[in-house]
Amino acid sequence: MHTHDWLNTADRFAPGRELFRSHRMFRLWAQTVSHGQLLLRSPRSSDHPTRIEVLFKPVSAQKVRWSYDGLVIRCPSSEERERIQQQTPGGMLGVDDRVFALETADSLDWVVAMAVGWHEDDDPGDISRFVWLDQGRKPVVQRPLDGADGGLNRGLASLEDVLAAVRAGHRPTDIADPQHAYLHVVMVRISWPGQSGTVAPVGAFLTRQAADAYLASRHPVEGAEFYVEAVPLSF
């Protein structure tokens, strides 16, 4: 296996072609709403001195599980691709979408994304090698991936719990809008060389108090300004 690779051009794909194979255990490690990133990781252990990461990006549809005892990623056959397409929302694939088959013992999992890549290293940290950083630069977020986190390390709320929490949330006092509930989104504005002016979300909260508490808990990052914006929600 190569130490690293990134596949996003047509010449790397063909029906049935194997793209990646490992006998190690992989877990669904992180997923972000922004950038549509899906990260599978085989962490370091007493038996394995390296970690291996597999990143799909940007993901538009998926059928995956929490863990894989051995992982094979390949291009599906024409027949498999057609069956997978029928399972996607609307039964349609984007012009630039590629379908990746994940072989398992009892069924075929899949991911629809534009690209896939992997990296093997001996880094013991939680931050992925796929997080882009200037040399010597500390990351803005202390998570495996940058971007709005899917929260895989926490329990998932039911739809009823989500609606109840949203309805109990606080509307901004300076906005007269009875039709919507509001999220309070923590944003970051970056002024690093080559990224000056970049603005991105780093967290969303149902109350301004929770957003302010999150801001207060963060360590200052040179060249990164954090602030809160109120965003209307519609169901």
- Please provide the ordered H/E string of secondary-structure elements: EEEEEHEEHEEHE
Q: What gap, in angstroms, lies between the N and C termini?
A: 46 Å
Shape: globular
Category from helices, strands and their pairing: mainly beta
Give the amount of beta strand, in percent.
35-45%
Q: Which stretches are low in confidence, meaning pLDDT under 50 for 5 or more residues running?
A: 133-137
Mean pLDDT comes to 81
Total helices: the number is 3
**What's the total count of β strands?**
10
Largest sheet: 6 strands, antiparallel, barrel
The largest beta-sheet arranges its strands as 2-3-4-7-6-5
Radius of gyration: 20 Å
User: Helix share of residues?
Assistant: 10-25%
Could you say how many structural domains there are in total? 2
Oligomer: single chain
In short:
With 235 residues, the protein is mainly beta. The protein has three helices and ten strands; from the N terminus they run βββββαββαββαβ. The strands form two sheets. The protein has a six-stranded antiparallel beta barrel with strand order 2-3-4-7-6-5. A three-stranded antiparallel sheet has the order 9-8-10, with helices on one face.
